Amino acid sequence: MANSDSAKHKLPLLLWPPNLIGYLRVITLVAAMLAPDIYSSYAVWMVSASYALDYIDGPCARHLDMCSQFGDLLDHYTDHVTMMWLVWAATGTDSGLWAQINLAISAVHNGIAFVYMAITGHYFKHSATGNIVTRNIESNNYWNLASVLYCANTTLFPLIKLSFAGTHGIKVADATTPLIDTVDVLGAIVTLSYSLAVWF
């Protein structure tokens, strides 16, 4: 512990290792966004790398005792920019009404997340209060049915659709199944409910 304390005090906050991992997340996400073909294997791998790094920054911060408000906000702002971009990219230009509704729900959810963090200085789950909706989604560190539906809607299904469309050379609107669409609708209901519930 003494070693991490001394290292922490020698490094400026912006250069703490967990924050450096956060910057790599941003770089890989921007690389995906700027790819000439957002359905390419390169773009999908870049956004996947950004998500993989998301599983490292938090444990690194806790292990090194380098948790900070800056790092937390960097992490969660990056999460929500990624979610918004994935849903937008998976909507495509030729998608139907449901995809447009889902994109609107994503815009509402991520917009609320940005405003909430700007006002409170922390992410939803760090609130001292909560309600039945937020506690249900956040329970067991997001490992529960409601949270799985939320993650499927905001991250997993868009990523699968992008990967499938790019790999098989099909329209992103066609890179789905009735089961995926049904679960995606359920996930969108959870996403919208979570967006609204954080204010109560």
Automatic annotation (TrEMBL):
It comes from the Eukaryota. Gene3D superfamilies: 1.20.120.1760. InterPro entries: CDP-OH_P_trans, CDP-OH_PTrfase_TM_dom, CDP_ALCOHOL_P_TRANSF_CS. One of its GO terms (molecular function) is phosphotransferase activity, for other substituted phosphate groups. Keywords: Membrane, Transferase, Transmembrane, Transmembrane helix. Belongs to the CDP-alcohol phosphatidyltransferase class-I family. This is CDP-diacylglycerol--inositol 3-phosphatidyltransferase. It comes from Calcidiscus leptoporus.
